[in-house]
Amino acid sequence: MTINPRDYDLNELREMARKRGDEDLPPEDPTEVEWGPLDEDGPAAPDSLRSGLYRELLPLVGAGDGMEKPYLERIPDTYAAEFVVFEWLEFLLMHSGYQGATDAIHYYESIEWVDEDVASQLDDYLLGIGDEAATETTELDVDDHMLSLVYVAKLAAMQ
After folding, report:
1. Per-block average pLDDT, block size 10, for the chain (159 residues)?
2. 57, 64, 109, 138: least buried by Cβ within 10 Å?
3. Model-level pTM?
4. Which of 106, 104, 86, 84 is closest to 96 using CA atoms?
5. Are 29 and 122 in contact (CB under 8 A)?
6. Which SS3 state, helix, strand or coil, does residue 114 take?
7. Got the DSSP string for 6-62?
8. Where are the domains of the chain?
């Protein structure tokens, strides 16, 4: 079963995360949230990745019940935010190619995760780091979109 993030608002995505079971809930203390390595002996990689995404996302937006779309109206003007942006764009480029990354950014604009100015700024960054000539484009899956939402939430939390 695939989930289309467009069909849900942030609160619904959080609720789905909570329903996945106790092992998927974030720790009580958000400072204990860390990205851990994926164990070969542990849960299957997709489940482990998804659990990590939920643990990363929920503490960041849990206190933001009053958040309104678009979630990211501007990219903060800090070195840390720039690092997060480039990490996110590198992820999109590696997983979907230049055209896929561009399509993803416009998709996030259409579902109001980012506003028009942010999408334009991300496009400009992509022009600087992406290879437009690369033709290999693969479709992003649900976990890829969830990770993008984590990046959006991190950037929004930096404002």
Report:
1. 61 64 47 45 54 66 63 93 93 91 95 95 89 72 89 88
2. 138
3. 0.64
4. 104
5. no
6. strand
7. GGS-HHHHHHHHHHT-GGGSPPSSGGG--PPP--SSSS-HHHHHHHHHHHHHHHHHH
8. 5-157
